[in-house]
Design goal:
CATH superfamily: Aldolase class I
Oligomer: single chain
Structural class: alpha/beta
Strand content: 15-25%
Number of helices: 12
CATH architecture: Alpha-Beta Barrel
CATH class: Alpha Beta
Number of domains: 1
Length: 309
């Protein structure tokens, strides 16, 4: 079994600040969390931006530029920029910063979906900012849009023209077949980094059987030698599914984007808390953690020197 790549998703765009006072919002907070996560063992840092004033998601390259270069200067971790942004952002907005810096790695959602957190709007009674409740409620009647045309555009503009490779986010088994379609079209080539995602409303449930099905389907479609499998378990499913992925020869993703908790009823104070916890799990399984440069080799990335920072 090869070494395990730990990805840490620092802040995301789905969770609202009221869910955790530890969720990083400002550039300084994102920098601090990212550096600590890298020092704890994260080889890849998955990054979104938020308005420093109230924490709402933003695609503004000016905000990204306040923290991404600082993270890159302080760590050797692979910088992974979202192309998903958040609900309601146009494709042009979602790609703006990635096209500016041409990163080694970008996330790429492999289909349109009913991604939703709207039930949380009823569970939270006292919101920190006025935008949060309407934002969560709006998920009920919105679709995250990534059509075949959108995906092709991203693959051409970022992949072919910029040399960026992708964290292919697969929320459903159909997303693996979408990925296979683009392989057959000649738009992408292995090794693929498949981030399989469980426990988000609108996507696959967190059942272990789903993880097994995704793994065996990916094996059949691509051949195990042609891809790196990784697992993101949302919320309380984060660590159990990470452990299952590791046992099955896969990689893991943690971070406050995916869960604000460290354990039952216990908020994670930092992203590094989750990285350290999953690293302990891997150690108990006698598995080694990949360094950033080892992850670059495993994923055939172009290297930090080719990034426009």
């Amino acid at each position: 079994m090869s070494k395990v790549i730990i990805t840490c998703a620092i802040t995301g765009s789905a969770h609202v600040p009221t869910m955790s006072r530890y969720l990083p919002i400002t550039p300084d907070e994102i920098v601090e969390h990212a550096i600590e996560a890298a020092e704890a063992g994260a080889a890849i840092l998955h990054l979104h931006a938020r308005d420093p004033q109230d924490g709402r998601p933003t695609p503004d390259p000016k905000v990204f530029s306040q923290f991404v270069p600082r993270i890159a200067q302080a760590t050797n971790a692979v910088i992974n920029i979202t192309t998903g942004g958040s609900m309601g952002m146009s494709l042009e907005e979602r790609l703006a910063y990635a096209l500016q810096i041409k990163p080694e790695l970008c996330s790429l959602n492999m289909g349109s979906m009913n991604f939703s957190l709207h039930p949380l709007a009823k569970k939270i009674t006292d919101f920190r900012f006025s935008w949060e409740k309407p934002y969560l409620e709006a998920f009920e009647d919105k679709v995250f849009k990534n059509t075949f045309k959108d995906i092709k555009h991203i693959m051409l503009k970022l992949g072919e023209e910029c040399g960026t490779r992708f964290e292919f986010e697969c929320y459903d088994i159909s997303h693996l077949y979408n990925l296979a379609f683009f392989l057959n079209e000649g738009l992408i080539k292995p090794p693929f980094f498949i981030q399989s995602i469980y426990g988000v409303l609108g996507g696959m449930g967190p059942d272990p059987e789903n993880l097994s099905l995704m793994r065996t389907t990916a094996d059949r479609l691509f051949g195990r030698e042609n891809y790196r499998f990784s697992v993101l378990g949302a919320g309380r499913h984060q660590m159990p599914l990470a452990a299952m992925s590791a046992v099955m020869g896969g990689n893991v993703r943690v971070g406050l984007e995916d869960s604000v908790f460290l354990g039952k009823g216990e908020l994670a104070v930092s992203n590094a808390d989750q990285v350290r916890k999953v690293r302990r799990i891997l150690s108990e399984l006698s598995l080694e953690v990949a360094t950033p440069d080892e992850a670059r080799t495993m994923l055939a990335l172009k290297g930090r020197d080719a990034v426009n920072l």
